[in-house]
Amino acid sequence: MLAEAQRDLTDAQGKLRRLKKDKRANIQKLQARQEERHNISNILIFLNYIEQLSRDIDAQMQRVRNASKNVTQKRDNLIAIMKKHKTLEKLKEKGWLEYQQKMLLDERKFNDEVAASRHIRKM
Predict the structure, then answer these.
(1) Is the per-residue pLDDT at 88 higher than 80?
(2) What pTM was computed for the model?
């Protein structure tokens, strides 16, 4: 469903925003710690965490791309179905009009035959 695909895309985009925000916050914390001259092990922990966040962001960006492709595909499928439905409606309407015309023609023929038979009887 298109709505489900859009919801997945929105969720993936939200998670990506949170990861990026977390990375920015940790970079700021790292910079503050470097200025305060904290020990190297704490700085290495921040660096490793930031690197992991970068990998997570890359993976999440791929998920967002995939979700976006999925939304596009679902939307294209929906458009194709709607076009097909519209075409079928037009064919149905055309068929109905042809049926009505045929019925009118049959009714005229019948009326002509009735009129002709009455005319013949009068003679």
Answers:
(1) yes
(2) 0.64
CA distances from residue 27 to 24, 34, 42, 80, 83 in whole angstroms, order as listed = 5, 10, 13, 47, 51
Helix (H, G, I), strand (E, B) or coil at 58: helix
Give yes or no for a contact between 4 and 77, defined as CB atoms under 8 angstroms apart: no
Those residues whose C-beta lies under 8 Å from the C-beta of residue 94, and which sit 6 or more positions away, are none
Rounded Cα distance, 3 and 75, in Å: 10
Distance between CA 83 and CA 41 in Å, rounded?
Answer: 62
Question: Residues with Cβ < 8 Å from 68, sequence gap 6 or more?
Answer: 9
Domain ranges, residue 48: 2-122
Distance CA 47, CA 100 (A): 78
Domain count, the chain: 1
For the chain, what is the mean pLDDT?
Answer: 89
pLDDT at position 40: 81
Percent pLDDT > 70 in the chain is: 98
